[in-house]
């Protein structure tokens, strides 16, 4: 789909089911290169990024069958070792196959992901980890080639300068078949890492401490295929919480783990928005007026950077001055110029955005510059006067399953067009 059109002003109501987590699924699919027998994965969202990682795995020799929301993945007996640029340029997370390839074949050649809209996003921490485990790393022709010496991968103590989600996952996947124990210190603590570790442990790996700052992996000789259901997507859940709040609606969000959205819930409570835990999920009840708050993005359990654009849209309608400090990515304010086109009053000073509210937003043609920025513009459109036209919808399709249909089911006046001119 090329464009989304939203006629704002309708309070959303009804029930929405959250899909499986995109950010949990991507490393879990990469990890399907590790076992010697097939894996079955349940609740796999139908998203462009999931399609890309499947293409990467197929290129490496895996066989993949989709049946509804279930994927069956047969690992290759001897994987290819190269992931070319055509895949990695589409999605940086393709780099997550490097750890499993090193563990399975001792060799991996992956194109460099390069920059992206929200920052330069290097992979130095991934490479530092592989190097410490015994891989020799070479750069050249836009690719990185990693190869293990005769001794194989050897467990080591690895300290991450920053708790990178991708580096923690990639190093865990390399270490599960290494000799001895690997300890990752200052590891990322995101729920997606716990889900990956649970998946690997079920396959026969020995991982302790996932979800804390210190993860210990004791290498095993072999892993076997398993069946696994991925966790619900906490960022999708957070986005619907804000959709309920920003429209003054009443939505029941099903298939959500309340603990995973705690940092978002804390800010909504501070703003004066009611969220109730019910038997079937979380119910958000919006209101007409709410308070300004300050938000600082941080690694989990801090406020997620992936919810920063969406909460900014909500802040435009809050009474007073809100401040957002973005500490995770250096260039994640691209949505601000688009929100300003809709009438938002926002100033930026370095990594801080100062949002003055409340304003009544008005519909305008705007462009999604990345996945979460796109979601924020749709949220802004839902509470705007007139029609908002969001282009570059392919960004949104990377991470929100059936976004249009789910919002329509909640009563939003939203429709799409295939043209993007
Ligand atoms: C993952 C998520 C993404 C989320 C991000 C932060 C997936 C597929 N994506 O991305 O949605 O926004 O976590 O919560 O799970 N960094 C380095 N060197 C490295 C690696 C990272 O400097 O080797 C920096 C990055 O440039 C960035 C910060 O660390 O500034 C966080 O990146 P990281 O946690 O690695 O994010 P991703 O795993 O890419």
Helix-strand layout with pairing:
Blueprint: E1 3-7, E2 13-17, H1 22-31, E3 39-42, H2 48-59, E4 63-67, E5 70-74, E6 82-83, H3 85-88, H4 98-105, E7 107-111, H5 124-132, E8 135-140, E9 143-148, E10 157-159, H6 165-175, E11 181-185, H7 191-202, E12 206-208, E13 214-218, E14 227-229, H8 234-246, E15 250-254, H9 262-271, E16 274-277, E17 281-285, E18 294-296, H10 308-315, E19 320-325, H11 335-341, E20 345-349, E21 352-357, E22 365-367, H12 371-382, E23 387-391, H13 394-397, H14 403-409, E24 413-417
Parallel strand pairs: 2-15, 3-14, 6-7, 10-11, 18-19, 22-23
Antiparallel strand pairs: 1-23, 1-24, 3-5, 4-5, 7-9, 8-9, 11-13, 12-13, 15-17, 16-17, 19-21, 20-21
Helix pairs in contact: 1-2, 1-7, 4-6, 5-6, 6-7, 8-10, 8-12, 10-12
The structure holds uridine-diphosphate-N-acetylglucosamine.
Give short descriptive properties of this protein.
24 strands; 421 residues; 30% helix; 26% strand; four-stranded mixed β-sheet; binds uridine-diphosphate-N-acetylglucosamine; alpha/beta
Fold and architecture overview:
The structure is a single chain. The protein has 421 residues and is of the alpha/beta class. The protein is 30% helix and 26% strand. Helix 6 links the parallel strand 10 (157-159) and strand 11. It is elongated. The model has no long low-confidence stretch (mean pLDDT 95). Bound molecules: uridine-diphosphate-N-acetylglucosamine. Residues 23, 26, 92-93, 119, 121-126, 162, 164-167, 188, 192, 305-306, 328-329 line the site of uridine-diphosphate-N-acetylglucosamine.
